């Protein structure tokens, strides 16, 4: 395992999510459940993240409504929200999901490019192919196109967007008041006539400040990883523990190398943190949120995941032992996560419900600023992560705790920047600006 | 002609356009040509318009690049720009064009709805069907679909967007921390399975603050006028003089009545103004911009419009008389405008080029605050207009002149509000909030 270069730093991203990543966060008496449609709330989150010198914040996106009974995520559309948030901040990067299955490349290139102009070069695009039939059925499809087809479209989509961003040369605009505004030879058609898209171009927007806004990807499948390896400039990962993170990290870095790329491509696993000045305080914060979970509904859901009736189980006793993965006939991914939590943490039933309610498959760190920084350092030096995608269980308190307590500890150790050194998201991630 | 109610007021909208509506505005030595990609520039325009208590400002939109040599309009995408501008203002309405030919109803409903949440109920949507093959060829079509087909799609598009905005009841959200977040019976599928769209819904966004963001339309054709009559809540018009405005006004109001609607539906003809403390000063401002026009290119263009070679004509002599409309074999619309300008204004060739370069077919008023207010009053009382869509030939100076000189004169006459009386765009336009 290659040692980190001296001075090499972590990258930190805030995954913005309503009242937090714990499903019951909105139920907490102190939550901002009343402010989920209030842009000033998101602006205040962005300012906290910027106070912590984070590389970026991230707005996920979906195209259907999900469960409205048990909280509801999409009170604002990400691109419009991020535009406002860019004006409340000066340095932090702003990453939005856009689905290649439901947008056209021209809209995506233009919306993201415009946001890059508005924010002065701070934008990233998380390329997703979407998942649910309910999303497809809001955009003219009877059902979601098959996985392979979605990824084929995604690749052509990304290529087209990149070509559109490149359709204006950096020096196209002359603004010669006695002559011409721009040089028409430096504003070129792209004439993309592919399998999925016909786009003549050029884009009706000058080249974005970053050249290309940063491409982010979070693919888990082999197709997803390959797309990420070929195009992504930063990657969101899911890793329950360091071992899983290392395996993913090695796999992606070797795919990136195989694709002939030398860009750093930081890999950022999701990270749920409960921070306290003592372990007890951290555990109490976790317990406070877990106690907000509606027990019956959570038990019913757990029952579906493990295909057993657990309504009679004792909430405060250890979870009974579960059949091994090989004997389980339902969906494997979630069941494997549950098995892992039960085996490695020996939780009570109530604790298990809480862990599943807050980024189940992602890494969770509970402790003091020092113990969490230790653990993050271990992942960083162990090459499980180039940084983390922070998923605070509750917002704003969870990101305030992190920024005010963990960030200073990371800074003391020289693991995180004291001040922004760059003005763009590319700069924060250590990425070159493409020549075009 | 029905007299205006006492206290009835004009509606004023600023049509934001790069450095102004005069094609040569960017060439003026004092222009902000360097700031066309700078969101702070648009925010400052919005603040000036709000200082003038205007009802709204409007961002047009197109899906292809147009002439990059002779200025270039689309430095920012309207929805992302308006989101930032909403945070720099408190009361003014914010209207964006979205094309029903190139978006999906779900995206349109969501983007506009999100902006309505972000702005606290100040958003309007100008429904257009788009025009150019170059736009179609950026979105997968080989050429623009025929006019009738575009309007059929537009109508189904509008119906679907309205249904999506209505898919959440106003009281759907309960936020019962011990119970449920929202009442699932008040968040309904729309199950729209029409000729052009399949959209199950519901929208993944609670009902917008205005219920429906305000629908605006600018159709000129019979189909366009009918769409406007059935759905529009404000209308942008093109009228060269009061007579043309009255004819359009009568036609639209009777179509609105025939559609069984009683909403006010303000009609706002475009208005280009050159304001000075004397007529000479106003004319000098016009001349200063006209002098920025590149003469050869303008003459070449005029030659195409009138199908004559006018390169040898004397710039400072009156335009020679032109053949009557009936004898002209080229495109009629533009030629008719040219004939009208020549007949009613007896311009020099240079003046004609200037008039065509700044909102040719729209009304132009040149004069003092008093004379312009007189004329606006005549249009208002003569029922040619319920207000105006201001198209300043240069920005920001043209809107500053209007706000600082004409608005106070209109206020003195009781023709325009002294302060905002409402918090939403619906409120400014005197429209009810739909019950849903
Ligand atoms: C941190 C993170 C954020 C994600 N954000 C989104 C999102 O906003 N929208 C979406 O549809 N999918 C999102 N995904 C899902 C991924 O794009 C991807 O579809 C998923 O990891 C499954 O991988 P696959 O597509 O390669 O099968 C996200 C995944 C992760 C790990
Ligand atoms: C003030 C005004 C603004 C307009 N804005 C746009 C626009 O932003 N994008 C667009 O494609 N068309 C725009 N149009 C064109 C109209 O939507 C419409 O297509 C045009 O008036 C021709 O009418 P028709 O579509 O009924 O044939 C605008 C027209 C006017 C008068």
From TrEMBL, chains A, B:
First and last residue of the signal peptide: none
CDD domains registered for this protein in UniProt: Nitrilotriacetate_monoxgenase
EC class name: oxidoreductase
InterPro entries, alphabetized: Diverse_substr_monoxygenases, Luciferase-like_dom, Luciferase-like_sf, NTA_MOA
GO MF annotation terms: monooxygenase activity; oxidoreductase activity, acting on paired donors, with incorporation or reduction of molecular oxygen
Residue sites binding FMN per the record: 61, 97, 147, 151, 221
UniProt cross-references to Pfam families, sorted A to Z: Bac_luciferase (PF00296)
Keyword RNA-binding: no
Domain of life: Bacteria
Gene3D superfamilies found in the cross-reference section: Luciferase-like domain (3.20.20.30)
Domain Luciferase-like: start-end pairs: 31-386
Keyword set, alphabetical order: Flavoprotein, FMN, Monooxygenase, Oxidoreductase
Keyword Oxidoreductase: yes
EC numbers, comma separated: 1.14.-.-
Annotated family: Belongs to the NtaA/SnaA/DszA monooxygenase family.
Protein name, entry field: NtaA/DmoA family FMN-dependent monooxygenase
Organism: Halomonas icarae
């Amino acid at each position: 395992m290659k040692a980190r270069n001296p001075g090499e730093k972590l990258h930190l991203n805030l995954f913005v999510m309503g009242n937090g990543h714990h499903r019951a966060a909105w139920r907490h008496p102190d939550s901002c459940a009343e402010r989920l449609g209030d842009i000033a709330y998101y602006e205040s989150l962005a300012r906290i993240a910027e106070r912590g010198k984070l590389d970026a914040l991230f707005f996920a996106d979906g195209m259907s409504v999900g469960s409205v009974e048990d909280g509801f995520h999409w009170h604002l559309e990400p691109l419009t929200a991020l535009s406002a948030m860019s004006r409340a901040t000066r340095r932090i990067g702003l990453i939005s999901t856009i689905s290649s299955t439901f947008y056209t490349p021209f809209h995506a290139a233009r919306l993201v490019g415009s946001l890059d102009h508005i924010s002065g070069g701070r934008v990233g695009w998380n390329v997703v192919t979407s998942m649910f039939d309910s999303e497809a059925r809001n955009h003219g499809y009877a059902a979601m196109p098959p996985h392979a087809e979605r990824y084929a479209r995604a690749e052509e989509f990304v290529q087209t967007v990149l070509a559109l961003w490149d359709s204006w040369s950096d020096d196209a605009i002359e603004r010669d008041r006695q002559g011409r505004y721009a040089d028409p030879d430096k504003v070129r058609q792209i004439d993309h006539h592919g399998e999925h898209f016909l786009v003549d171009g050029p884009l009706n927007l000058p080249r974005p400040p970053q050249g290309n806004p940063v491409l982010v990807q979070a693919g888990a499948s082999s197709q997803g990883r390959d797309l990420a390896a070929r195009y992504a400039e930063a990657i969101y990962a899911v890793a329950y523990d360091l071992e899983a993170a290392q395996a993913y990290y090695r796999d992606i870095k070797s795919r990136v190398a195989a694709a002939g790329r030398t860009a750093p491509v930081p890999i950022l696993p999701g990270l749920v943190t409960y921070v306290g000045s003592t372990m007890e305080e951290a555990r109490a914060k976790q317990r406070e949120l877990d106690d907000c979970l509606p027990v019956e509904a959570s038990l019913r859901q757990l029952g579906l995941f493990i295909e057993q009736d657990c309504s009679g189980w004792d909430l405060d006793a250890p979870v009974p032992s579960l059949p091994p993965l090989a004997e389980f006939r339902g969906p494997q991914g979630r069941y494997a996560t549950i098995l892992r939590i039960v085996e490695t943490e020996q939780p009570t039933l109530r604790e298990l419900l809480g862990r599943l309610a807050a980024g189940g498959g992602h890494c969770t760190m509970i402790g003091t600023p020092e113990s969490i920084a230790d653990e993050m350092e271990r992942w960083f030096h162990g090459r499980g992560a180039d940084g983390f995608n922070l998923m605070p269980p509750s917002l704003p308190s969870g990101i305030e705790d992190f920024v005010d307590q963990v960030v200073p500890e990371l800074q003391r150790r020289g693991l995180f920047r004291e001040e922004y050194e760059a003005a763009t998201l590319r700069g924060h991630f250590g990425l070159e600006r493409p020549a075009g």
